[in-house]
Amino acid sequence: MNAIDMLTKQHREMEQALEAVADADDASRADLFEEAADALMAHVLVEEQLFYPAVKAKRTEDILLESLEEHLSLKRVLADLVALPAGASTFEPKFHVLVEQVEHHHEEEEEKLFPKVKKLLSDDELDALGESMAAAQTRLLPREPRLLATQQTDEAAALGEAS
Ligand SMILES: [Fe+2]
Ligand SMILES: [Fe+2]
To answer: Ligand 2 centroid vs 85 CA: distance in angstroms?
Structure first.
């Protein structure tokens, strides 16, 4: 699948998953949150490890660096949420901050980054990139990637080189 289509589709899925957490009753909230947080971290990590390096160029570098800072901010809120005990009164306000940041970040990627990437990479390149990103996510998802957020709150990930 085309890498941009895949990421955009996942943005909508994550927004829905986060909405489901917000609407959940006490019995199902924790499970739904874990699921949404795993999906969010798997998405973010694959962007950092594969997508951003592959689309790094003069005209994308500033946006990518800003995106990495937004990822850092997401990881910090996520790490806070993961560490909260069940039923904590701060869960809800913190969760709303996460949702706002996620929505803003998706908008930035879709409106500023992806249009530039479409001019940089061919459809074949985007398809090949999508394949490797999907495979990486499949490997990551069962390993509870939300727990990695806690280890990545010091500084933004470096903008790596495409391998
Ligand atoms: Fe994204
Ligand atoms: Fe992102």
So the answer is: 27
Task: Please tell me the distance between residue 111's alpha carbon and the centre of ligand 1 in angstroms.
Answer: 11
Predicted confidence band of residue 163 (pLDDT cuts 50, 70, 90): low
pLDDT at 33 over 90: yes
Of residues 43, 38, 48, the one with CA closest to residue 11: 43
**Distance from Cα 146 to the centre of ligand 2, integer Å:** 15
**Residue 162, Cβ neighbours under 10 Å: how many?**
11
Kindly report, residue by residue over 113-141, the tens digit of the pLDDT: 999 999 999 999 999 999 999 999 999 99
Please name the amino acid found at residue 128.
A
Distance of alpha carbon 22 from alpha carbon 101, whole angstroms? 15
* Of residues 162, 140, 139, the one with CA closest to residue 149: 140
- Apex 76 CA angle, 73 and 105, nearest 5: 30
